[in-house]
Amino acid sequence: MTCGDEESFETFKDLIYPVIKGWHGYDAATQKHPTDLDASKLVFSAEQEKTFDEYVVSTRIRAARNISGYSLPPGASQQERGDVEGILKKTFAGFEGELKGTYYPLGGLNKEDEEMLLSNGFLFQKPKTTNLLTNAGAARDWPNNRGIFHNESKTALCWCNEEDHCRIISMCKGGNIREVFARFAQISDNMKKAAEAAGASLMHTENLGFLGSCPSNIGTGLRECDGQDSAVQQEP
To answer: Are 98 and 183 in contact (CB under 8 A)?
Structure first.
């Protein structure tokens, strides 16, 4: 299931809310979703960090963020995708310090950049006829107004106009969850400020939390994945 815009969650709630309840065990009709991205509240002792580093190869936190007032990718027009990309490019250009990096427009990749992004697992999947997003309409005008951002140390990655307006991915080698979450929260906060500077806001409601194209990712916006799931590589 995908949604074409944020209004879909209200217009089609008789269909969507039971799906949310069945998937998450959460009653969107009666409950409120708490949101707290204060990394200082994360309980992660030095002993736990040592244990994680011993057993964990890498850590990543990945979530969706969408800009209110623009259709979600399955329902977006070419103009809307371009507007969203413009806001995100300004966001990325404003990143400083550890987050400073480069945005790569998907339609303008040279061979060298494509191979670099592919080897790092940063490219997202090309549309296929069997792919849900293709059939939902999210692949229209591919690859225009899509792109990938990563910082210089390759610990922060953002996908523009794939399944959602933006997929934030914070990562590191080893198991330092505190570091990864703090970086993730910083990116999310920067996105919120950039949306507000553009006269918009991030899609978020009191009962559903952060909204995304797929109801499986709403709430925190976090994407569930198993040990086999990393950034989905674009096929050569």
So the answer is: yes
